[in-house]
Structure formats: structure tokens, C-alpha cells
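Reopening: Cytochrome c oxidase assembly protein COX19 still failing for me.
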Amino acid sequence: MSTAMNFGTKSFQPRPPDKGSFPLDHFGECKNFKEKFMKCLRDNNFENALCRNESKQYLECRMERQLMAPEPLEKLGFRDLMDGKSEAKDNF
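Support: Ran it again with your exact input. Result attached.
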């Protein structure tokens, strides 16, 4: 009886998200970069703007080791860090 009720239903075809999903770092290849970033966040009251350089280094590590799709750093919001300066350094 339950199969007769399913004729009108559409089948759901899941698909992976375009962005935001990437393999876990099972082998800890970028663990040091992640820990450095997390320490920076803790030390700065989780004010992520103060840890942008650490974030950039972590993402670069992930891209170099194919743990995420390569993206230009400018597209990830690091255009101002490309020449080595950061907003935090400019404020001093």
C-alpha cells in the first residue's frame, strides 16, 4: 500500500555545494597553520580582522596541499595583504 503512495513524489538528487565544503585535514598537513590562526583568535578576543595574515597562510597551506580548490587570494578577500602589509600594521 505504501508503494502506491510514492508514485507522485519526485526523487531528490543531492549535489555538493559550490563552495564551503572541502576535505578534512586528516593527516594534519596544515595543523600548525590552523593552531596559529586559532591562537591569534583567542589572543585577540576572536576579532578575526586582527588575524587575517594567519587566515591567509592557513588557506594557502590548504590550497597547496589540495585540501581545497585553488582560488586567487584577491578573490578570498586578501587583496590588501598581497604586497605584505596588513590593516592591523597600518593602525600603529
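The longest helix spans residues 31-43. If you still see a failure, please send the error message rather than a screenshot.
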